[in-house]
Amino acid sequence: MEWIACRFVRVEPRRRVGLFLLGLLAGLPRVNCWTIAEHAGEASPDGMQHLLARAAWHADAVRDDLRGYVVDHLADPGAVLVVDETGDLKKGVHTVGVQRQYTGTAGRIENAQVGVYLVYAATGGHAFIDRALYLPKSWTTEPDRCRAAGVPDDIKFATKPALAREMIIRALDAGVPASWVAGDEVYGCDSKLRTGLQERRIGYVLAVACDHQVATLAGKHPAKALARRLPARAWNRLSAGAGAKGHRWYDWALIDIPVDVTDAEVPGSVGDQALLVRRSISTGELAFYRCYTPVPVPLATLVAVAGRRWTIEESFQAGKGLTGLDEHQVRRWISWHRWTILAMLAHAFLAVTAATARAQTHPTPGLIALTANEIRHLFTHLLDHTRHSAPHLLHWSRWRRRHQARARDCHHCRQTAQLA
């Protein structure tokens, strides 16, 4: 709260945002304005809903404070900016950005809302520093629909790689210390993103598809075709970093590739480009990465950067499981951006506290280091002493049932009118 208090001029939203953050960290069975307001001791969710929808504060300013908080505690010149998207399953058609689209959350095409996120992955820890809501063309081509959801008039259609490029540039322009960018195939196959990073002389290890065309002296060939020609001596067994079950060992090979015509025209694009190939030890399955480095680096460095990409999956899991990143029940543009930035701030608090604990304490034999999950548990039970009386709990029971009764009656009236 010390980092963001200045963004709230009035005392009421400043106090309420503190209670909101406590609610996000409270381990509630469901996290929404109703449950957070009840946990905060308020008589109705109106105040929390007002905080998200109408109160005078700027989510972008809080985003800048979040970025400063993370960098202040985790700063690392060799850090990796990791970009990826995640989907939140939704019902109906009125929630901003929702449509039937593929989402990795479900592993199939579902009615979902997709956000693109940026994680700062340093040696000491990792946390979110930015996000952007993906608006499909089914929204941007319907101004009335966008207006009803509160989408600003200047927001136009942008692909997920374009959103990622904006967030990365914003972070670099703000002086975030980082040397690398990592991402999956959605971002690795986007030439504009790769070119933009080369212009900034920022190294990248971006996944690409097996049929991604790679320029060689003998012409362009699919990545999988080049991998088939690699001799046995080209492979090196290296760890991509430690996971939940130990080190992630793979066989790796590096194929140097010449700078293609497009990249050669980029000012300041001098550097090394390569195709990094990963082979599973157990199944032999291949994965491919386009790499760029302003100066030559060893294979182990590229492998380590590729391994850092998984930190964003860990952040999604922690953000959704510990701070309600995906549990927002909001429909409008401004409410989505406000909810996500506060959930990211709560997650950053846990991530930074865990990193600080690991740095300041010696490992204890027989114990793992403090995790974000354990810190959230300790914080909730030791520091947050919010306890409510039976009348307060009964009041909320009546409030919920009364609201649900009104919603039921409205649905029945609408259904009757449609049948008539």
UniProtKB/TrEMBL annotation:
InterPro entries: IS701-like (IPR039365), IS701-like_DDE_dom (IPR038721), RNaseH-like_sf (IPR012337). Pfam families: DDE_5 (PF13546). Residues 13-216 form the Transposase IS701-like DDE domain. This is SRSO17 transposase.
